[in-house]
Design a protein that fits this description.
The chain is built from 9 helices and 6 strands; from the N terminus they run αααββαββαααββαα. With 448 residues, the protein is of the alpha+beta class. Strands 1-4-5-6 form a 4-stranded antiparallel sheet, with no helix packed on it. It has a two-stranded antiparallel ribbon with strand order 2-3. It starts with a helix and ends in a 6-residue tail after the last helix.
């Protein structure tokens, strides 16, 4: 039992070590993709925008200072009548009689324009919020929105890593397919040469020659199709990592290592759940922001400047004006009450979405793990079939050369051998594709 367990551990470590070696170039391409992918750049632009919005919200706590100046020229309009003459002239006349002099002249009634004429006012105007809960909660919301943008970036990055891996495996799959068809083409061309020689020597009939010619044509067509699949795979891979579409792709030495299925469930750490948690917190602050309607707002202001007529500037022209303003909403027709009810319904919706997404992520993990197990079983079966088909083809080829087997038997053995190689190649990289999907479902890829 101990020896068996030791072999299993050794094999697992070997697979991990081999995996770390064979995937080095893929890891490099992943880093290139994460740095140069255009969608990631767009997400970074959104994050930068959110950061600036946060700074804007923070700036609302600071005072606002502005320079205000105005000049007025007026004539006509409403006036203020001041009956100075009517009030003082009788008194002045009496005083002149008593003093027997003209020391007290007569005064005219005055009429002053309400609109100031030839008047200027220049001041530094400063305002600052002293108590405003709307600003406080607005800043919190902006901060959480920035975090939300970062989480959305991480979600896309994980999806991109999965797509890059799948595209890379499909590219390797297509290369191996081309190699298999090239070997098959050599094989059928050799059969064509042998059959033509045997036909010339009257050893076989013309049917075998025609059949071998058709096999050459069929394999050549399949080879061309495989090349087109390879070209498409290369183009798509280069698109994902934002390189020129015809750029050559470096690959590691081909091997038949398979991924491990020893993966612990980790869906509780998925960014999708973190995103919903962040959305819930934002909604909570939106609720508090709505409730802040009932709180008083306190602000201060101060003006420092000059004002006078005829552009006079002196000590009397200087002035300051300062104060505190209070705003407290008393009634708004229950507008905010209903708005708060909407926020509460959003909270219930987010809670329901979180439960649903949690179940979906767990389902995705279990399905991906089962798909990986199935892919590995299929690979092992195809691998065994490949070994059997190889031996069978070698035996029939030997018998055919000795004249103990007909061409149909040889053709069948060769087709089995080619198909077994193709199926093994497909199932091998399908297992790696399934592993990439499981890694995505479990959020186990580590970003550098």
């Amino acid at each position: 039992m101990y020896n068996k367990m030791k072999k299993v551990i050794t094999l697992t470590l070997f697979c991990f070590g081999f995996l770390g070696y064979s995937q080095s170039k893929l890891d490099n391409y992943i880093q290139i993709g994460l740095k140069s992918n255009e969608v990631i750049k767009q997400h970074n632009f959104d994050i930068n925008k959110s950061m600036y919005a946060l700074k804007e919200a923070h700036a609302l706590f600071y005072p606002t200072v502005s320079l205000n100046a105005n000049y007025t020229k007026a004539d006509g309009g409403r006036t203020i009548d001041i009956p100075i003459g009517d009030m003082l002239n009788p008194v002045y006349n009496t005083l002149n009689q008593i003093t027997n002099s003209n020391a007290f002249p007569s005064l005219q009634n005055q009429s002053v324009l309400i609109n100031p004429d030839n008047f200027y006012d220049a001041k530094i105007h400063t305002t600052m919020p002293l108590l405003n809960f709307e600003i406080i909660y607005n800043k919190r919301i902006k901060s959480q929105q920035t975090s939300l943008q970062k989480i959305e970036l991480e979600i896309y990055q994980r999806e991109l890593v999965k797509e890059i891996k799948i595209a890379y495996y499909k590219y390797l799959q297509s290369i191996e397919g081309i190699n298999i068809y090239k070997d098959a083409l050599k094989l059928v061309k050799e059969n064509q040469r042998v059959n033509q020689s045997l036909f010339k020597n009257d050893k076989i009939n013309r049917t075998a020659v025609l059949r071998s010619d058709n096999e050459v044509i069929r394999i050549e067509a399949n080879l061309e199709t495989a090349k087109q699949v390879n070209s498409n795979a290369k183009t798509y891979f280069n698109f994902l990592i934002n390189q020129k579409l015809d750029s050559e792709i470096e690959i590691d030495a081909n091997n038949e290592s398979t991924p491990t299925i020893l993966v612990n469930e980790n869906t509780s750490n998925r960014e999708e759940l973190s995103k919903l948690t962040q959305v819930s917190e934002i909604n909570s602050n939106v609720s508090k922001l709505t409730e802040s309607y009932w709180y008083p707002k306190l602000s201060g202001f101060a003006d420092f400047g000059f004002q006078d007529f005829d552009f006079e500037v002196n000590k009397q022209s200087r002035y300051y004006f300062a104060g505190v303003g209070l705003e407290w909403n008393i009634f708004s027709g229950n507008k905010n009450k209903y708005k708060l009810k909407q926020v509460e319904e959003d909270s219930k919706k987010i809670s329901s979405q979180t439960d649903n997404v949690r179940q979906q992520l767990l389902l995705q993990f279990q399905v991906s793990q089962n798909n990986l197990k199935s892919a590995l079983e299929q690979f092992n079966a195809d691998k065994n079939q490949k070994e059997s088909a190889k031996k069978y083809n070698e035996d029939i080829t030997k018998l055919y050369k000795e004249g103990q087997a007909i061409y149909i038997e040889l053709l069948d053995a060769q087709n089995q051998w080619v198909n077994a190689q193709l199926n093994t190649n497909i199932s091998l990289y399908n297992s790696w594709i399934a592993f990439a999907e499981l890694e995505r479902a479990n959020a186990t890829f580590t970003f550098k």
